[in-house]
Amino acid sequence: MNWLLGDIIEKNIFKFCWIVDFPMYELDEATGKVEFSHNPFSMPQGGLDALNSENPLDIKAIQYDCVLNGIELASGGIRNHVPTVMERAFEIAGYPEGTVQQKFGGMYNAFTYGAPPHGGCAFGLDRMVMFLADEPNVREVIAFPMNQQAEDLMMGAPAEADDKHLKEVHVKKDLPKEKIKIAG
What we know:
Layout: H1 2-5, E1 16-19, E2 22-23, E3 25-27, E4 34-36, H2 47-53, E5 60-61, E6 63-68, E7 71-78, H3 83-92, H4 99-103, H5 105-112, E8 119-123, H6 125-132, H7 163-168
Helix pairs in contact: 2-3
C-alpha cells in the first residue's frame, strides 16, 4: 500500500483518524443551488433550530468516517428520524413540499409514531485485509471482485432475468414498442 503514496506516509505504521463535522449542504457550482453534500438522511447538528436559523452552508451533519493512512475504513452517522426536520432539510435543498412523504412515505410514516435517535457505523473488513496484506487495491482481497464495468465475471452478474423469474416476484416488463422502419 505504501508504494501507492510514495514517501508521503511513514512505512509500516497505521495512523487512524476520525473525520467528523461533514457539511450537510454544498453549493452546486454549475447551478448555484444548495444541495445535499453527502447523505440527505443524516441528522443535521442543531436539528430544526439550525435548519431555520443558520446559513445552510454552515450546517454540519452528524456523520463520521474512520480513516487509516488516508483510506476510508468505516462510515456512519446519526440518521434523521424527525419528520419536521427531514421535511425542512429537503426544502433547503430545493425539493418541493411533500417530496419526503411522496418518495419516502413508509419511512416518513414510521417516524411520525416516534423513533429514538439511531445510527451506526460500518467497517469494511475487506479494506482492513487490504492493509494487512499490503495490497494496493481492495479488489485484490475480495472473493468476487467486480471489473471496471461493475460486472462479477465469476457469477455472470448482472444478468437479465428471464420471464419465469420475473413472474415469481410479480414483475411485469413494460418495454417501449420498437419503431418499425419502412423502406422507401
